Each structure stands twice: as structure tokens, then as C-alpha cells.
């Protein structure tokens, strides 16, 4: 039975690595998969899913304007698909998450979505909120804070390493911009700024 899966975490937990490994497992068994990643994340190159450990794979891209149900249905017409993989799922719109639910329910294809749960201010991304509400299965991918506790939050830093408490929700970056922390150290770094408002 097909399901909508959401694998979520903070930065640098290995979500893209897990996605690429799972896609490889399908292909190794002779099954075709469909990979999607956000247009606006070009850190590994346009239309490419890349991991920090050097793995990478070409993928189709999505933007907020795309109908993912139509895109996946068209791809399935051309090639029998066994599974759909979505990287950077936090950038999905709520409507697109419903489209992925239709892929599962109507096309009977499993969808594996990987993404961040919260932004640097501790707020849910719209795509993540919809996935938390609609996914059949939720899996937390764990990483650790510098103190050894589980990291569940992330801070954004400027070029000098200063923690930023305000700004746009979306800013593409990696280790140069973001640090994963446990809630306690995130609160310390943010000066409890987000908890006040």
C-alpha cells in the first residue's frame, strides 16, 4: 500500500544522503524512481540533489507554481515508476503537499519527502506543516548539538559568526550560514528572542 512519508530534521542530519541511498536501493532492484528538488536550492547545481559527503544525483525541479500531481502523472506515462522522492520538502506549498497525497491515493505511488521541520526562528515551514498534518508516516532524522544532545533547531549566522534573530524565512545556505543546536542552546543563542513573540 502506497504511503506519504515525511523524513524531517534540522540542517546537516543527512536527509539528502538517506534519500539518495533509498533511491539507489530501488534502482539496484531494477525499479524506476522519480527525483524532485526545489528550484531555488542550487547548492549542488541546478536540478541536482547533493549531500555533504559527496553523493549526488540529477533531479527534476519544482517551484511554487508547479502542479506536482500533473508532473508525476506525466512522468509515469513515460516510465513505470516505483517511488517518488522529494528533497527540500520544506519548500513545498500546502497545495503541493495535497497533490502528493493524491499521487499516493490515486496513482498508488509511494512518496518519500525529506526536509527541514523548522526555520532558524523556530517556526514551521508551510510545506513541513502540511506534511506533518497529512503524511502517513513521520520519521525524525537525528543529528546532534555540540553538547551531545539531539539537535532539533537551527540558528542562522552572518559572515562573522553572529547569530541572526530576524530575516526572511528562506535563505539558501549550508555550514557557512547555519548551525544545528538542541533547544536549550538555540534559546541561549537567540537570547530567547523567538520565545518572547
Question: How far is the first residue's CA from the last residue's CA?
Answer: 43 Å
Taking all residues together, what is the mean pLDDT? 86
Low-confidence blocks of residues: none
CATH architectural type: 3-Layer(aba) Sandwich
How do the helices and strands line up, and which of them pair or pack?
Elements: E1 4-9, H1 15-28, E2 33-38, E3 48-50, E4 56-58, E5 60-62, H2 68-78, E6 83-86, H3 94-107, E7 111-116, H4 126-134, E8 137-140, E9 153-157, E10 163-164, E11 178-181, H5 183-190, H6 193-196
Parallel strand pairs: 1-7, 1-8, 2-5, 2-6, 6-7
Antiparallel strand pairs: 3-4, 9-10, 9-11
Helix pairs in contact: 2-3, 3-4
Explain briefly what this protein structure is.
The protein is built from six helices and eleven strands. With 197 residues, the chain is of the alpha/beta class. It has one domain (4-142): 3-Layer(aba) Sandwich (Rossmann fold), CATH 3.40.50.
Structure description:
The chain has six helices and eleven strands. It has 197 residues and is an alpha/beta fold. The chain has one domain: Rossmann fold. The strands form three sheets. The chain has a six-stranded parallel β-sheet, with helices on both faces. A three-stranded antiparallel β-sheet has the order 10-9-11. Helix 3 runs parallel beside helix 4. The longest helix is centred in the first third of the chain and has 14 residues. The radius of gyration is 17 Å and the shape is elongated.
